Every structure is written in C-alpha cells, then in structure tokens.
Amino acid sequence: MVVFVGGASSRLDDELAAARDTVWSITTVVRAVVGTWHGRSPRLWLVTGGGLSVADDEPGTPAAASLKGLVRVLAFEHPDMRTTLVDLDITQDPLTALSAELRNAGSGSRHDDVIAWRGERRFVERLSRATIDVSKGHPVVRQGASYVVTGGLGGLGLVVARWLVDRGAGRVVLGGRSDPTDEQCNVLAELQTRAEIVVVRGDVASPGVAEKLIETARQSGGQLRGVVHAAAVIEDSLVFSMSRDNLERVWAPKATGALRMHEATADCELDWWLGFSSAASLLGSPGQAAYACASAWLDALVGWRRASGLPAAVINWGPWSEVGVAQALVGSVLDTISVAEGIEALDSLLAADRIRTGVARLRADRALVAFPEIRSISYFTQVVEELDSAGDLGDWGGPDALADLDPGEARRAVTERMCARIAAVMGYTDQSTVEPAVPLDKPLTELGLDSLMAVRIRNGARADFRVEPPVALILQGASLHDLTADLMRQLGLNDPDPALNNADTIRDRARQRAAARHGAAMRRRPKPEVQGG
C-alpha cells in the first residue's frame, strides 16, 4: 500500500500544519487497515519528494521528516506492516526509483525503514555510536549573558537553569504554563542568589509568548546568547486508539513551540539554539506516536536552521533519573541516565557543535528480547551486531522443533519461552529462580500489564512461533497458561492439559466486546445530510 504525501511549502508555519495533518491522515489509514484487513497485512510505503535532509546544506522539509517518528513507532506497534518512508528526488524521474524500491521490497531478510534517492544514489539511515569532538571549543555559557529555557519549570528545565547559573549566566528566563509550585519556588530562590531568574508564564505555542520570553531576556541591555527549547507533553496512546485531540496536545509544546522560538529569535545573534527532543523519534517508542512525530519535526527544524546558516542543535534524550517527562518512556529497554551524566553530555555536545545526537542508556539485550522485530530493520544493524545476547533467552529451535517433542515437553517449551518474553517486556529481570518469573494462572492484567506491553508480547510471540495471540485476548484476562494453550492450538499441537484451557472462553469474550464496540461506533457515525431540491 503506497501513500503519497503532498509537496513542501516555502513557509515553515504551513509546513507545521501540513505535518500535523499528514500524521493524522496516515494514522487514520493505519487504523482502517488494522481494523478491517484479514490475513497478512499489506506493507505500508510513505512517499515524499525532496523532503529529507541528506547533506548538511540540504534543508529538507520538517513535514516530511516528521514521518520518521511515525515509521519508527509503527515498527513496534505494527511490525507486520514494515512501514517505510521513501523520499524521491524531485529533479529526476521519481517513478523509476520508486519502482525499484517496490520491486526489491522482499529481496532480503532485513529492510531499510527510511530511504532517500538523490539522482541515482540511494541513501539510508543507520543508528551508530556518536564520536564527540570537544576540541572545537564552541562557546557554551558566557559569563553574565542571558539565556531562555522553555519548559523551564519542569524537571529538566530547572536542571538546565541550575547548569546555566553554575556556568556563570547572568540572567535566566524560564517559560512555563503555570505558576511555580512551592518546591519550584525553593529552587528558584536558591538560584536567585547567584543570578537573575525571571519566570514568564504562558504557553510557548501561543502567539506572543515566545516574543515575550526573548524580550525579557534582552531587557536592560542583556545579551541573549542561547535558547533551550525543552517544553513537552507526553500522553500514552497506541496509533490504533490515538485521537486528534491527543495529537494536538502533544504536538503543540514540542513542535509548535519550537517554531515560535525559531521565529522569535530571527534577529538574535545566538551562540546556540538547542532543542530537547526525544529518543522516541530516534529509536521508536510504542504508544508514543504523537510525541515521536512532534520530536521528529523538531529534529528536522534544527536541520533546516543549520542548512540556512543559523545556529541549531538537537539532543534526543532518553529518560533522566527523577526528572523530566521522558520518565514516562522508561521501560525494560531504556535505563535512566543520571543528572550528572546528562549535564556532562549537554556540555560536551554544545562544545562540539554537533547537529543531532541521541543520549540514552539503551539495554540492547533487553530490546532484542522485548522487540525481536528490530533484527529485521537495517537501521538497527550496528546495535544488533554489537550485542552479545548469549543466554538471554537460551537456545530456541523455533516452532518447527516443537513437533518433535511429546505434548508435555512441547507445552513446557512454549510456556518457558513465553514466560521469558513476558518477563522481559514487564521488566522482571530475575529469571534464574526455580519458580517461574511469571505466575502460570494469574491474569497478566493483574500483574500490571497494559496495552503497550500486550502489543510487545504479541510481537514477541509472532517472532518466536510465527503465530500470535491477539492483543484483545491478552488484555481480557489471559494468563501465561492461557496464552500457552492458545499458541498450542494455533500450532496444531496436542495440549496435554485441555481442561486447563481458558483461552477459548477469553477469546470469545474478546470477540463479543470487539463486535459491541464496532456496533457502537457505527451507530455514532453521522448520517448523511439530505437537502431538498
């Protein structure tokens, strides 16, 4: 299935609206396909023209680049769609390159998720370790200068404010949507003893607020030398259940706020303009499509600024310990970085004048257990190749090997494999005890399972067994024992304990509830308006 995305606009504000609307339209397509398609899902191709920045001097268009966030999230939520973004060269015959991609789509075990054609050259993205060159000595914090921090009253905002004051900033202007709490006031009072701290209340996405922040920083002859855009809102939502309001609430502070700060600093001589983006747009994060796309738009805006000769950098942060909205992204595959580690990275990256860098503690061993689909995505090749995952899940001969076992051994093998998968997804790290890490007969929902974990468990089962338990089954109270029985049935294996099989009952209940939801949705559809002639 190929979706062609419209051309670029010369105005960034038009680009912003187009990006948000395009993300919404594509998620609508995904929901329609997932909700109605029977059998193997079609592969999804998103096609843009001249939208990605391949060279440093190529501005690209943020609207096209924001789709990278969606591609990375769909890789985990719906890996069977193998969503791919292809950016064609609009100065050449685009159909030639697109035809080549479609012809070669199934030629290998891995696929590229982001591709750009420039002439006859094909460019792809790869995740790799950064090399930091701090010898450039780019100015970081100037003594007595002014700085602006959006999202300044949040956990990360206050950490940045303290870092600026510690480095000798004279005035720090903090933007926030509400008045500071008592705890925040205590932090501000301590900082106020060493620098001038000003809080400007307002939503940075609203017209005029960014201009007020800049004006405040430059009052009384203050020299504004740097901007940190750290405003953010995170709301968990799978693509299948994401609403337009959810997208708008997440999009506004990160993407719209970034555009407002870009416009407000047009006449400022800055040392740096720094965007705080997210690992969600760099690595993908199931349940965070809106945040990943908004962060990808910010990533692209930074590239656009650099190509236009303006200072700009972006850091794709993983979760920090104890502070920041990105704590919501903490799972079994991302460990937190300490505040000291984050500040050290911030100092180094600004001094090195890098355009874009991710800073996160990725547990690749856990990632491959919880998200086996990353083995099929070439973007993660280096991560996969570096990993020594021996012993994480033990030897696994695949579903074909189960046919050679007697029913009791087959059930035991399926149970152990699913137990390891579920334990990895739900963050149970001790799998070495005699007792199973996951109770056999307790509903997973009573162990803290949510919809995101259910998707990951389904994906892991698909990778291991080439069949999958429906997410609805997992969420309707299935236990490890129930999932084992369901997989045994789908694999055509005899179950030695059929009396213990509760999966069919749970599956029937899930079907009934799904049918009821579908009927309710159909009844809520507006009837067509009929006008008299």
The total of beta strands comes to 14
Q: What is the beta-strand fraction?
A: 5-15%
Low-confidence stretches: 520-533
Shape: globular
Q: Can you tell me the CATH superfamily of the largest domain?
A: NAD(P)-binding Rossmann-like Domain
Instruction: Quickly name the level 1 CATH class of the largest domain.
Output: Alpha Beta
In oligomeric terms, what are we looking at?
Answer: single chain
Rounded to an integer in angstroms, the radius of gyration calculated over CA atoms is: 25 Å
Label the CATH architecture of the largest domain.
Answer: 3-Layer(aba) Sandwich
Helix content: 40-55%
Measured distance between first and last alpha carbons: 40 Å
Structural class: alpha/beta
Q: Which sequence of strands runs across the widest sheet?
A: 8-7-6-9-10-11-13
| Major pleated sheet | 7 strands, parallel
What is the count of structural domains?
Answer: 3
Summary, kept brief:
43% of the residues lie in helices and 12% in strands.
Would you mind describing this structure in some detail?
There is one protein chain. The chain is an alpha/beta fold and 533 residues long. The protein has three domains: 2-124, Rossmann fold, CATH 3.40.50.11460; 134-359, 3-Layer(aba) Sandwich (Rossmann fold), CATH 3.40.50.720; 399-519, ACP-like (Non-ribosomal Peptide Synthetase Peptidyl Carrier Protein, Chain A, Orthogonal Bundle). A seven-stranded parallel β-sheet has the order 8-7-6-9-10-11-13, with helices on both faces. Strands 1-2-3-4-5 form a five-stranded mixed β-sheet, with helices on both faces. Strands 12-14 form a two-stranded antiparallel sheet. Helices cover 43% and strands 12% of the residues. It has 18 helices and 14 strands. The model is unreliable at 520-533 (pLDDT under 50). The protein has helices at residues 12-36, 62-65, 67-77, 94-103, 155-166, 182-192, 209-217, 244-264, 279-283, 289-307, 339-352, 364-370, 381-386, 407-426, 451-465, 471-475, 480-490, 503-524, and strands spanning 2-4, 45-49, 84-88, 114-118, 121-124, 146-150, 171-176, 196-201, 224-229, 272-278, 313-317, 334-335, 356-359, 361-362.
